[in-house]
UniProtKB/TrEMBL annotation:
InterPro entries from the UniProt entry: MoCF_Sase_C, MOCOS_middle
Residues making up the signal peptide according to the UniProt record: none
Sequence ranges assigned to domain MOSC in this UniProt record: 88-259
Protein name from the UniProt record: MOSC N-terminal beta barrel domain-containing protein
Amino acid sequence: MPYLAKIFIYPIKSLDGVAVEQTRILASGALEYDRELAIFDEHSRVVNGKRHQSIHQLRSYFNISCQTFSLQIPGKDSEYIFDLHRERTALTSILSDFFGFTVTLEQNSLTGFPDDLKSPGPTVISTATLSEVASWFPGVSVDEIRRRMRANLEIGGVPAFWEDQLFSESGEMISFRVGDVQFFGVNPCQRCVVPTRDSFSGIAYPNFQKIFVQKRQATLPQWAASSRFKHFYNLSVNTQLPKSEAGKFIRIGEKVEISL
C-alpha cells in the first residue's frame, strides 16, 4: 500500500533540508516554508549549487517553531544562530564573507522560489527509487542520494520508479491523493549538475551523469511514458495542486492513491 514515508522542506533554497512530520499546502501549491527564502547576488541572480559549487560546504538547520537558522561555515569551529526576522542582515553578512561577494536574502511566503515556475508543487519520489539509484554508485549511500535529489515527498510501500506512473505520454496530468489532498503529476524532473556532486564537499562523482543516464534508461519501467524523456537524466516528478487544496495538511503515514 503506497504511503507518505517522508516529507522534506528546504527553507533556504540550495541549503540543507529539514524533515518534518506534516506540512501545510500554500495557495500556490507549494509546501509551507519550502524554498521560502533564497540567496541572491548583486546582479539579482539566485546563488545556488548550479552556479556556486562552494555552497555544498555550508551546513544549516532551520528551526520552524523558533524561526531560527543555524549555520556552520567550513573552517569555523563555532556555529552561528540567527533569528530570521531580526538578524537577517547579520546572516547575509556572514554569507557574503563566505562567497566573497555581496548577497541578499529574499523571502517569498506565497510561492517560494521553485525551479519549475509552472509546476511549483512538491517533487515526488519513492524510497525504493533512491535505493536503486544509490546501488548504481559504489560508496554512495541512500541518504546521500536523497540529499542530492532534494525531493519533497518520499513514497514508501512501492517498488522503484513507482512515481513514473504520475505522468502520461499525452502530457495529460495524472491525479493522485495524499490523504485528502489532491495532486496532479505533471512531468519527470530534469536534473542539473547538483546531483553529480557530494552533498557535503561539492566534489563531483566521476562520470555520474553518464552512469545515471545509462542505468536510468536500462531500468525504465516498460509501462512508463518514455516519450516524456528527452534524455534520461530525469528523476522524481513535478506536481501542481488545485487552489482548493490551499490550507490543507499532509502527514507522514497517510495513504497515497492514484485516481482512476
